[in-house]
């Protein structure tokens, strides 16, 4: 399978196509894809789903996807790397948690975001603004980043997050979604708090999670926090103090302890 490699932190693409030119592929970056006009099918991870004007998709590096165009389609792409999120050019990104949450919960919205009429109008304006800023993306970098965060906020409120316990597959999506969203707030990841959120007993949620994932709830949270902290450290733009503040940890030594105990 073809794999595309992007080395720039951010690429903004705006194009219209009658025939999709790319094979089924993966890539090393994330893609926010806006369907300005047109219709067809989006093939992602072996599942074929219809798309139409106004749809937004979020694709990660390990998603294999392609489009089958049935009606001329106007695509707008925001293609960004981990470097873009975690301090491109040595600049630490404010508000990165919102985008991290959206990315880590991709499994809840493979089929695209179902936006309200009002949110659809706002998203259209944001994408149009970003396209208008791309001619000088270096000078407009901070403005573009603010638009990306605005998109993240709108897409988050259109995610199918479930609070009550329902069918099993959807239950696990909801639990993962809750953990990813609240990884920065340790007090909200305690079993009694999570059990209350999902309206189940404290003695139920841990065994339920272990039965469906093979990991204890505590181990999954620990591993997930570890992977996110390691990602920030690898970027070289975050101090241990900043990381501690971001993840609700006591201080720098607490960060070091998390890294030691999660290896």
Briefly summarize what is shown:
The chain contains 10 helices and 7 strands. The chain is an alpha+beta fold and about 260 residues long.
CATH architecture of the largest domain: Sandwich
Number of helices: 10
How do the SSEs run, as a string of H and E? Answer: EEEEEEEHHHHHHHHHH
Give the overall shape.
globular
Task: Please tally the β strands and state the result.
Answer: 7
CATH class of the largest domain: Mainly Beta
| Distance from first to last alpha carbon | 32 Å
Low-pLDDT regions? 162-169
Helix and strand content put the structural class at alpha+beta
Main beta sheet, described? Answer: 5 strands, antiparallel
- The percentage of residues in β strands lies in 15-25%
CATH fold call of the largest domain: Jelly Rolls
Total number of domains: 2
User: What is the arithmetic mean of pLDDT?
Assistant: 83
| Rg, Å, rounded | 19 Å
Helix content: 40-55%
The CATH homologous superfamily of the largest domain corresponds to Jelly Rolls
Pfam families: AraC_binding (PF02311), HTH_18 (PF12833)
Domain HTH araC/xylS-type: 173-263
InterPro entries: AraC-bd, HTH-like, HTH_AraC, RmlC-like_jellyroll
Keywords: DNA-binding
């Amino acid at each position: 399978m073809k794999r595309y490699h992007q080395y720039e932190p951010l690429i903004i693409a705006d194009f219209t196509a009658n025939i999709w030119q790319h094979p089924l592929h993966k890539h090393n970056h994330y893609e926010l894809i806006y369907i300005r006009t047109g219709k067809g099918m989006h093939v992602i991870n072996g599942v074929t789903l219809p798309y139409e004007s106004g749809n937004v998709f979020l694709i990660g590096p390990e998603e294999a996807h392609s489009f089958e165009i049935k009606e001329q389609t106007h695509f707008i792409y925001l293609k960004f790397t981990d470097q873009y999120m975690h301090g491109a050019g040595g600049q630490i990104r404010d508000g990165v948690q919102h985008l991290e949450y959206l990315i880590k919960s991709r499994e809840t919205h493979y089929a695209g975001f179902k936006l309200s009429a009002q949110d659809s109008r706002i998203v259209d304006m944001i994408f149009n603004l970003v396209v208008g800023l791309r001619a000088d993306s270096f000078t407009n970098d901070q403005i573009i980043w603010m638009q990306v965060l605005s998109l993240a906020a709108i897409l988050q409120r259109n995610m199918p997050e479930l609070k009550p316990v329902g069918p099993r597959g959807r239950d696990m999506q909801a639990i993962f979604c809750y953990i990813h969203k609240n990884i920065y707030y340790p007090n909200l990841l305690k079993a009694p708090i999570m059990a209350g959120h999902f309206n189940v007993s404290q003695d139920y949620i841990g065994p339920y999670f272990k039965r469906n994932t093979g990991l204890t709830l505590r181990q999954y949270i620990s591993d997930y926090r570890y992977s996110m902290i390691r990602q920030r450290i690898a970027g070289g733009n975050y101090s241990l103090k900043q990381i501690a503040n971001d993840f609700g940890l006591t201080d720098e030594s607490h960060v070091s302890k998390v890294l030691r105990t999660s290896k």
